[in-house]
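Quick review question:
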């Protein structure tokens, strides 16, 4: 059976999960959502379609919402989601299913995997030793998830607590209204080496280089790829992130996340 796995990732957690799923299913095509959004034609469907993404404020990233809105309605595709999160998956499965239903599609099943926290406004990534421990602890859960996915069940939805399921959609919607322009708090300090990696790794072309330094354009996804992959740790969010550890999944590098055409 044909399988397409559409993925979105800022630090590589979700890409790693997508790769593991693809490896288990075999013959699965991994397609970056950021690249698919550049295409004029609607996204392709297959007999099985997976949505792989990180949880932002208890729901999918804004780019994933835009992608879901472009999926062609109808058909018999088995649609599933697999997402990564740090604190709680919240209402991610619930919100994703609602988005699909608007387009005449449905979510057959959803799974979540706890991975390393990496959101600077909430304190950022833990120390490197803890990062390694959490990544190692996530592997058995990934093993279990990919085996469950390979059975293609229906009606299995990874859910948060009753509170998160009730309040999550509202909090997630409020978060999305402020995402794009939250980049006004970003800047590159004097340690910037003018390498341009931040511009290339941004999944939505939100960064342009002005005299070799990044400038953000107000259409951010809050994935923090620029922040975590900067080789000089020059990119900051406000005045308090200089000392925060940076993080990316150890099996993913910056080149893996340079997915836009002409990036």
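Suggested answer, residue by residue:
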């Amino acid at each position: 059976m044909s399988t397409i796995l559409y993925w979105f990732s800022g630090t590589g957690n979700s890409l790693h999960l997508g790769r593991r799923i693809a490896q288990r299913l075999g013959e699965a095509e991994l397609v970056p959502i950021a690249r698919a959004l550049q295409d004029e034609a609607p996204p392709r469907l297959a007999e099985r379609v997976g949505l792989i993404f990180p949880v932002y404020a208890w729901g999918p990233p804004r780019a994933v919402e835009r992608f879901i809105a472009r999926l062609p309605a109808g058909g018999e595709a088995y649609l599933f989601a697999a997402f990564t999160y740090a604190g709680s998956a919240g209402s991610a499965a619930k919100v994703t299913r609602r988005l699909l239903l608007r387009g005449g599609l449905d979510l057959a099943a959803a799974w979540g995997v706890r991975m390393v926290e990496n959101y600077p406004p909430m304190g950022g990534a833990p120390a490197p030793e803890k990062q390694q421990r959490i990544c190692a602890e996530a592997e058995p859960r990934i093993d279990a998830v990919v085996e469950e996915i390979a059975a293609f069940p229906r009606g299995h939805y990874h859910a948060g607590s009753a509170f998160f399921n009730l309040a999550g959609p509202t909090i997630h919607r409020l978060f999305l209204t402020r995402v794009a322009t939250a980049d006004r708090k970003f800047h590159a300090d004097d340690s910037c080496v003018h390498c341009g990696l931040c511009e290339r790794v941004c999944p939505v072309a939100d960064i342009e280089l002005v005299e070799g330094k990044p400038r953000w354009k107000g259409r951010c996804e809050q994935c923090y790829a620029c922040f975590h992959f900067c080789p000089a740790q020059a990119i900051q969010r406000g005045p308090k992130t200089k000392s925060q550890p940076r993080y990316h999944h150890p099996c993913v590098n910056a080149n893996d996340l340079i997915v836009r055409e002409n990036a």
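Why it works: The helical segments are 13-25, 33-36, 62-70, 92-102, 128-150, 162-179, 197-201, 225-229. The radius of gyration is 18 Å.
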